[in-house]
TrEMBL record:
Name of the protein described by the UniProt record: Toprim domain-containing protein
CDD domains per UniProt: TOPRIM_TopoIA_TopoIII (cd03362)
Toprim domain segment(s): 4-110
Organism annotation: Sporosarcina saromensis
Cited InterPro entries: Topo_IA_core_domain (IPR023405), TOPRIM_dom (IPR006171), TOPRIM_TopoIII (IPR034144)
């Protein structure tokens, strides 16, 4: 299985890909076999957050209108949804990750120095 490198955004994925010989496809790139990746690898990316928490009113219609009395909003189980406009890229990432046993998280660490 080829490893999947997950970058945070397309420009970051391109910067990683610049170090390798790649074939470009819609939503991902394929790294050709090389000393670092003898079987090749895939690079894909998010576009901001691909998934997000569902809105409170999807759990309980009474939570559609915010009020101090309804806080805290604590559903029994949190649910996620694909973010609006990001379904296509989500499907690419999902397919690649399901087809591998190695995912390399190459996203920003969000640590401030």
């Amino acid at each position: 299985m080829k490893p999947v490198i997950l970058a945070e955004k397309p420009s970051q994925a391109k910067a990683y890909a610049d170090a390798f010989s790649v074939r470009k496809f819609e939503g991902y790139m394929e790294i050709q076999a090389c000393p670092i990746f003898p079987n090749g690898a895939y690079i894909t990316w998010g576009v901001g957050h691909l998934v997000e928490l569902k809105e409170p009113h999807t759990y309980n219609p009474a939570w559609k209108r915010w009020s101090l009395g309804s806080l805290p909003i604590l559903p029994d189980r949190y649910e996620f949804q694909v973010a609006k406009g990001k379904f296509k890229q989500f499907q690419v990432v999902k397919k690649l990750i399901k087809g591998t046993d190695t995912v390399i998280n190459a996203c920003d660490s969000d640590l401030s120095s």
